[in-house]
Amino acid sequence: MHPLQDVQKPGVEGTKTIQVRVNGQIYKREVPIRMLLVDFLREELGLTGTHVGCSVEGRCGACTIVLNGNNVKSCLLLAVQADGADILTVEGLGEPDNLHPIQEGFWEKHGLQCGYCTPGMMMSVYNLLKVNPHPSVAEIREALVGNICRCTGYEHIIEAVQYAADRIAAMPKEERDKLFSY
Amino acid sequence: MYPAPISEYFAPSTLEECLDLLDQYGNQAKILAGGQSLIPLLKLRMADAPIIIDINRVIELQEFGEKFLESGNRVLRIGALTRHKTLASHPLVLSKYPIISDAAKYIGDVQIRNRGTIGGSLVHADPAADLPVPILVLDSTLRLVSKDGERTFSADEFFLGLMMTVIEPNEILAHIDIPSPQPGTGAAYYKYSAVFGDFAIISIGARITLQDGICQSSRIYLGGVNPRPQRAVETEEFLNGKTITSEILQKATDVMVEEVIVESDMRASDTFRKVLLKQYGFDVLSKAVQRAKEEQI
């Protein structure tokens, strides 16, 4: 028999209390150990901007968040692993009347059609522009390999990233640092 | 999609604590490192873990850098928790061990490389994974530890078959030691996959030591073609002792295509894999020779 087919009976449901900082706010919750971080954000905290796409193997990237300074897929982490972590989700990026330059880029360059992949896309762009303020087209494409969009063909997304990069580059250093505090 | 219920979760911060837990729970527990393979397997109910031991806080597993062993030999020590991101971008890897970044930089995508670890990849032993091949090519040794003591294996002894290694339920992989290469050594790795960052349809790793243009020794492994990476011994023997020219590398590639037993699966036929091997085998050997001149493995 294939070793992966060796399915055993499930264990008993255990829980654990965790404390996390999400978009600057501290939350303390008791969660099932098997709860995924993405479900914790959506179901427990009501932060439904982080999406669930493929839901299984972490291919689509719609659930991408920034965890302790790195963009990761929140469907491939247990919520209990985030105990003590600092998290940024799309809700923490900007406000409707004060968009983050990355959000502005997607708005101005029409970097979306249905918008389902957009929050995850923007969290990956956040991590890209934090370390590489002037990415080439190839670098943008490589940074977004883990975020799948089935509408746009990516062209407008790349223009959105370039728009954001230009906007940010034109800002004074202090303001730039404030945009990338995670 | 949820994993099945998990009854206990431990996040030890020292190796000693971790080994105590493994000793106590052994078979029932799964070690959670990057989780980029384990979490999907738990969701699909292909793996079962009533108990999770999260090792992400264990400092002893995070070593990374060159060091001298008691024997006086210098090695590159890679702690099992070293992330793919580090292997893909660390200046030490890029300047002296580029075969490792060749492999690490095309694992999955940015998000996966931010979480995934070398220890997880090696212990998981997916035949199409990227890191086993360079680890084998560089004649690395793997240190396993448990409450009962330590065991050291060569990479070749470590991998047994499809997702099977010598590791026991109470053991954990602590680190990988990559020996310092002989002068005049170069190495390279290439993967062909259907989609950027996907698992290998075929991957090739080669290490060649040159002196005055003559091949002193070589090591070649192929990934993605068999239940575990396969060594191309006849190709190595063909190369050893020969003056390396483009023509010899071409002939060596033919030997490799002839020698290697490849299988068909849902991703590719054996015929297609041989075509890829003929195409890319030569490129990898050439790159290894070029790097030998620059002392880069």
UniProtKB/TrEMBL annotation, chain A:
Pathway: Alkaloid degradation; nicotine degradation
Organism: Thermoflavimicrobium dichotomicum
Protein name, as recorded: Carbon-monoxide dehydrogenase small subunit
Domain 2Fe-2S ferredoxin-type: residue ranges: 16-93
Source taxon at top rank: Bacteria
InterPro entries, per the entry: 2Fe-2S-bd (IPR002888), 2Fe-2S-bd_dom_sf (IPR036884), 2Fe-2S_ferredoxin-like_sf (IPR036010), 2Fe-2S_ferredoxin-type (IPR001041), Beta-grasp_dom_sf (IPR012675), Diverse_Oxidoreductases (IPR051452)
UniProt KW keywords: 2Fe-2S, Iron, Iron-sulfur, Metal-binding, Oxidoreductase
Matches recorded under Gene3D superfamilies: 3.10.20.30, [2Fe-2S]-binding domain
UniProt GO MF annotations: 2 iron, 2 sulfur cluster binding; metal ion binding; oxidoreductase activity
Automatic annotation (TrEMBL), chain B:
SUPFAM superfamilies, alphabetized: CO dehydrogenase flavoprotein C-terminal domain-like, FAD-binding/transporter-associated domain-like
Molecular function as annotated in GO: FAD binding; oxidoreductase activity
Top-level taxon of origin: Bacteria
Domain spans labelled FAD-binding PCMH-type: 2-183
Keyword Flavoprotein in record: yes
Coiled coil: none
Protein name: Carbon-monoxide dehydrogenase medium subunit/2-furoyl-CoA dehydrogenase FAD binding subunit
UniProt keyword terms in alphabetical order: FAD, Flavoprotein, Oxidoreductase
InterPro entries associated with the record: CO_DH_flav_C (IPR005107), CO_DH_flav_C_dom_sf (IPR036683), Diverse_Substr_Oxidored (IPR051312), FAD-bd_PCMH (IPR016166), FAD-bd_PCMH-like_sf (IPR036318), FAD-bd_PCMH_sub1 (IPR016167), FAD-bd_PCMH_sub2 (IPR016169), Mopterin_DH_FAD-bd (IPR002346)
SMART domains, A to Z: CO_deh_flav_C
Pfam family, one: CO_deh_flav_C
Nucleotidyltransferase found in the keyword field: no
